[in-house]
Amino acid sequence: MWCDYRMEIVRPEEIRLASYADALKRAIALGTTKIERAQRKLSKIAADPKSFLAEQDDPEALGGDMVFPDGTHIPRIPQMTRFLWDDEVCGTINFRWQVGTTELPPSYLGHVGYEVFSWKRNRGYASEALRQILPEAIKLGMPFVELVTNVENLSSQKVIAKNGGVLIERFVQPELHGGADAFRYRIYL
Q1: Do 131 and 154 form a contact (C-beta atoms < 8 A)?
Q2: Interior CA angle at 145 toward 163 and 111, to 5°?
Q3: What is the pLDDT of residues 61-91, one digit of tens each?
Q4: pLDDT in the model for residue 3
Q5: Residue 174: its pLDDT value, please?
Q6: Would you call 161 exposed, middle or buried from its count of C-beta atoms within 10 A (0-12, 13-18, 19+)?
Q7: pLDDT digits (tens, 9 = 90+) for 6-43
Q8: Given the DSSP bridges, would you call strands 181-188 and 166-172 parallel, antiparallel or unpaired?
Q9: Helix (H, G, I), strand (E, B), or coil: what is residue 188?
Q10: CB of 21 within 8 A of CB of 42?
């Protein structure tokens, strides 16, 4: 294990939903997460927790369109979200794919995305979560996964490198994703 404390990725379940909601509220109060996105998640949890949980594990892309803060709707692709768990939710990791290909639609920048809540950082959780999600891509027969990070996000670059990531390109993200300079990495499986 690569982290300082026992942490595992777990399927989002009703028993852990209160912990996740509490973490989102704390991150909003601290200003350490994308506030609009976190508020949308809290609203979904409050309105229909079962539907929210179903969207977190959606290998058939049945959850409806993804909606961005600007109101843009894009078709959902197969995906799964896992909670980072160390006796409470300390972050999330998301894996998304298309059946039979490593290609992603232009609106999806990478196969894997993750967030560790600020009060749980610097414990190796992101590196360990990424290591634990990679077998899901192997099960699908994928030869690699791609991850994107902003150029200034050195912490994320270290997480990717620790898992064998190789820099593929530097590019400017589409405005839909903020328009920042970014790196695309590939982890060969």
Answers
A1: no
A2: 110
A3: 988 887 766 777 888 999 999 999 999 999 9
A4: 59
A5: 87
A6: middle
A7: 899 999 999 999 999 999 999 999 999 889 889 999 99
A8: antiparallel
A9: strand
A10: yes
**Three-class secondary structure of residue 32 per DSSP:** coil
Residues in the chain: 189
Q: Where do the domains of the chain lie?
A: 8-142
The bridge status of strand 79-85 relative to strand 57-58 is antiparallel
Structure tokens at 72: 């843009």
CATH architecture entry for 8-142: 3-Layer(aba) Sandwich (3.40)
Instruction: Give residue for tokens 């409806």.
Output: 64
Residue carrying the six token digits 């999330």: 92
Pairing of strands 89-96, 66-67: unpaired
Which amino acid appears at position 92 of this protein? T
Q: What is the pTM of this model?
A: 0.92
CA–CA separation, 109 vs 173, rounded Å?
8
39 within 8 A of 31, measured Cβ to Cβ: no
Name the one residue in this structure whose structure tokens are 């996105």: 37
Closest among 32, 28, 8 to 89, alpha carbons compared: 8
Name the nearest CA neighbour of 56 among 99, 96, 102: 96
| Amino acid at residue number 104 | L
List the strands of the sheet with 181-188, edge to edge: 144-150, 181-188, 166-172
Please calculate the CA angle 146-96-133 and round it to the nearest 5 degrees: 75
pLDDT value of residue 5: 65
